[in-house]
């Protein structure tokens, strides 16, 4: 068993730096957004970044400067930051070709963030999938671990397994050291959480959740995840806004409470994107989301 993972209440800064270029998907991270997140009682933001899109025998200094800016805002407001290598789809399709790029990106990031406050957390790779299974992902993690640890002996490092970070992959992830956290994502049942998703070619039709069988499945899934004796982290969970608001809030609240029952910190997907909790038009919570996530009006 490792140390206690310090993240309890987190939100993903989605649809921004994970896009091909920030703003392409309709959201750009603003200073006031970070302040709002801190004021609500969250302790962490997860920052997904499409780093490979800025790679050409090195990382574009502009993306490092922008990431530094967002990290700086968060730390000014007392938030931890999970820096996440996100949407590396070429690696998922062809691990042998793009594995060296993965290693090179982390060599640069490790060097760049040497000496940063330990409130910065590294997440090595979001949702291994397709041709990159858990064993292949672990091989990549093993390749970069010694160099990262040389620069960051006490920094938390988050890893996750294949099948898009499914909880059933947790038993196959190694606990490299006491500052390793094992992450999983939860979007079950997918037909409910992704109903009417506008970005899918064939989105699921409207669906309901909340039966006794639904609750039993949720509890069983989290009990299975919690069976892994390691620091655990629920890195993503969320529901489309096209879902009936009361059922959306019920599912989110149920997942959050179940994670907390098992002592698992969580990170909602997301802030102002397609699963948003924050409405940029009103500069406030989407109705129902504050009670679901924080248990308050």
Automatic annotation (TrEMBL):
Keyword annotations of the record: Carbohydrate metabolism, Cellulose degradation, Glycosidase, Hydrolase, Polysaccharide degradation
EC number: 3.2.1.-
Protein origin, superkingdom: Bacteria
Record InterPro entries: GH, Glyco_hydro_5, Glyco_hydro_5_CS, Glycosyl_hydrolase_5
Coiled-coil annotated spans: none
Any GO MF annotation of the entry: beta-glucosidase activity
Protein name (database record): Glycoside hydrolase family 5 protein
Any Pfam family the entry gives: Cellulase
A single cellular component GO annotation: extracellular region
Segments forming domain Glycoside hydrolase family: 25-269
Class of enzymatic activity (EC top level): hydrolase
Gene3D superfamilies (alphabetical): Glycosidases
Family: Belongs to the glycosyl hydrolase 5 (cellulase A) family.
SUPFAM superfamilies on file: (Trans)glycosidases (SSF51445)
Record GO biological process: cellulose catabolic process
């Amino acid at each position: 068993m490792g140390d206690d993972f310090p993240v309890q209440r987190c939100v993903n800064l989605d649809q921004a730096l994970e896009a091909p270029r920030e703003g392409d998907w309709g959201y750009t991270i603003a200073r006031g957004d970070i302040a709002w997140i801190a004021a609500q009682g969250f302790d962490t933001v997860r920052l997904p970044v499409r780093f490979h899109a800025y790679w050409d025998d090195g990382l574009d200094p502009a993306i490092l400067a922008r990431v530094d800016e967002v990290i700086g805002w968060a730390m000014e407001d007392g938030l931890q930051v999970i820096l996440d290598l996100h949407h590396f789809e070429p690696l998922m399709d062809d691990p042998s070709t793009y594995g060296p790029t993965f290693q090179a990106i982390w060599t640069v990031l490790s060097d760049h963030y040497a000496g940063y406050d330990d409130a910065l957390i590294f997440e090595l790779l979001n949702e291994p999938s397709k041709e990159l299974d858990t064993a292949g992902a672990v091989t990549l993690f093993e390749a970069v671990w010694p160099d990262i640890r040389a620069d960051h002996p006490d920094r938390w490092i988050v890893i996750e397994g294949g099948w898009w970070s499914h909880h059933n992959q947790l038993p196959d992830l190694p606990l490299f050291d006491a500052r390793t956290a094992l992450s999983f994502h939860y979007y079950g049942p997918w037909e409910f959480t992704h109903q009417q998703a506008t970005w899918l070619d064939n989105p699921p039709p409207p669906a309901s959740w909340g039966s006794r069988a639904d609750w039993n499945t949720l509890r069983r899934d989290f009990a299975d995840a919690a069976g892994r004796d390691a620091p655990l982290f629920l890195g993503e969970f969320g529901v489309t806004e096209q879902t009936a608001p009361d059922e959306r809030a019920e599912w989110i609240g149920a997942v959050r409470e179940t994670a907390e029952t098992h002592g698992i910190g969580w990170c909602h997907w997301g802030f102002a994107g397609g699963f948003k909790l924050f409405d940029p038009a009103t500069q406030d919570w989407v109705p129902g989301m504050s009670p679901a996530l924080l248990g308050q009006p």
